[in-house]
Write a structure and sequence with these properties.
358 residues, alpha+beta, Glucose Permease (Domain IIA), 2 domains, four-stranded antiparallel β-sheet
C-alpha cells in the first residue's frame, strides 16, 4: 500500500485538534507515544502494544463470511516505502483452498481474500465524527465518548452513514452496525480490497496497535445477510426517544417502499411494513408510544391492513428499501413470508382473535 500524507478536511484534522490535546491512556495502562498514521505518516517507531481492554462492547470491524472469522492481513507498524510505518491494521479473510477469489485480483492475494460487497462495522457504540470521500477512499471516524477512544476506517467504496464533518449530523451508531462497503485504496497499485482500521487514544497521533485488544472482541455475523436479496437493506439505529430522527429517516417523507424492524439485542425480526407514498409517517408511527393501545388504530385502516405495534426507539434498528408505489405492498408480503416477523398480525390466528382494527 502506497503511503501519502493527507488530511481529511474538517474530519480527522478537527478531531485531532479537539480530542488529542490532553488525551491520556486508560488508567493503569502504559502511556502511548505518538505513532504513525496513514493521514500524517512519520518515521517514528511503532508505539508500544496496548493490552486493553477498552471499556464497553467491542466487535471486529468486519463480520464473519462463510462461517469464518476475519483476520489481520497486515499488522500495525509494518514498514512502508520511505521509512514510514503502517498506522493501523488491514482486515481480510485468510485464504482457504476452496476459495474461488483469484490471487492478483481486487478480491484476493496469495494468502487472503475479500469478497465484493462486504460491510465494515462500527467496532463499538459511538457518534460518527466524520464520514467523507478522501484520496484513499471513503473514510469514517467514530468518537466513542465519554472515553477518549476513537476508531478510524478507510478504503471504503461506499458510505452507509450520513456524510458529515465535526459530528454535525450527530449520527449515533451501535457496535456491529454497518458503516460502509469495503473497497480498495485508490492509491494502491494492487487495488486489493481490504479494510484499514485504527484505534486512537485521543487523536490520529495517538494510534495504538489494535491487534492485542481485538483478540478479545466478538466476531458477529454479517447483519445484511438475512435480506441479501434486497441490496438496499442495511439495519441502522434510529436514535433515542425525544431525539430528532436521523436524516435518512426524514428523507423518507413522500417516498414509497417497505421497512423491516429488528430487535437490537436478539436480532429477531419483529415487524415488516410498507407504504405506497407515506413511508416516513408509516414507519415512525411504530415509535410513538402514546399509540401503543390497539384501540387507537380501530377504524383507521381498511380490511386486511395490519397497523402493527409500537417499540422503544433505542431497542430496535430499521432497514428500509424504496420501491415504486405499485410494488411496495407486494414487497412487504414477500418479506413477511420470508422473514416471518414476530408481531405482524396478518396470518397470525392467535392475534386475529384479539381486538384489531379489521
Amino acid at each position: 500500500m502506497r503511503a501519502l500524507p493527507w488530511i481529511i478536511g474538517g474530519g480527522v484534522a478537527a478531531y485531532a485538534l479537539t480530542r488529542s490535546r490532553g488525551a491520556k491512556a486508560p488508567h493503569g495502562s502504559t502511556p502511548i507515544a505518538p505513532t504513525t498514521s496513514p493521514i500524517a505518516p512519520t518515521s517514528s517507531p511503532p508505539a508500544p502494544a496496548f493490552g486493553g481492554p477498552l471499556p464497553g462492547r467491542w466487535v471486529w470491524p468486519v463480520p464473519s463470511w462463510q462461517s469464518r472469522a476475519p483476520s489481520i492481513s497486515d499488522g500495525f507498524g509494518s514498514p512502508r516505502p520511505g521509512g514510514i510505518r503502517h498506522g493501523g491494521v488491514d482486515v481480510m479473510f485468510a485464504r482457504l483452498p476452496s476459495d474461488t477469489l483469484r490471487a492478483g485480483t481486487p478480491n484476493g492475494s496469495a494468502h487472503h481474500v475479500m469478497p465484493d460487497g462486504m460491510v465494515a462495522l462500527a467496532a463499538s457504540d459511538g457518534v460518527v465524527w466524520s464520514a467523507m470521500q478522501t484520496p484513499r477512499g471513503f473514510a469514517v471516524v467514530i468518537d466513542h465518548s465519554p472515553t477518549k477512544v476513537a476508531t478510524f476506517y478507510t478504503h471504503l467504496e461506499k458510505l452507509l452513514v450520513t456524510p458529515t464533518a465535526n459530528a454535525k449530523a450527530g449520527e449515533r451508531v451501535r457496535a456491529g452496525q454497518p458503516i460502509g462497503i469495503i473497497g480498495a485504496d485508490p492509491l494502491d497499485g494492487e487495488h486489493l480490497k481490504h479494510l484499514h482500521f485504527e484505534i486512537w487514544l485521543g487523536g490520529p497521533k495517538d494510534a495504538i496497535d489494535p491487534a492485542p485488544v481485538m483478540r478479545a472482541w466478538t466476531v458477529v455475523p454479517d447483519p445484511t445477510a438475512l435480506v441479501a436479496r434486497n441490496a438496499g437493506f442495511i439495519y441502522r439505529p434510529i436514535g433515542d426517544s425525544g431525539e430528532a430522527y436521523p436524516d435518512w429517516i426524514r428523507g423518507l417523507k413522500g417516498k414509497a417502499g417497505c421497512y423491516v424492524i429488528r430487535d437490537l439485542e436478539s436480532r429477531e425480526i419483529v415487524y415488516v411494513g410498507s407504504s405506497a407514498g407515506r413511508l416516513y409517517d408509516t414507519l415512525t408511527r411504530h415509535f410513538q408510544q402514546w399509540r401503543r393501545w390497539k384501540g387507537f388504530w380501530k377504524g383507521q385502516y381498511g380490511e386486511g391492513h395490519d397497523p402493527g405495534l409500537t417499540y422503544d426507539r433505542d431497542s430496535v434498528e430499521v432497514a428500509v428499501r424504496l420501491t415504486s408505489p405499485t410494488k411496495s405492498l407486494d414487497e412487504e408480503m414477500r418479506l413477511i413470508a420470508r422473514l416471518k416477523p414476530r408481531d405482524n398480525l396478518i396470518g397470525n390466528s392467535a392475534a386475529i382473535a384479539d381486538e384489531v382494527p379489521f
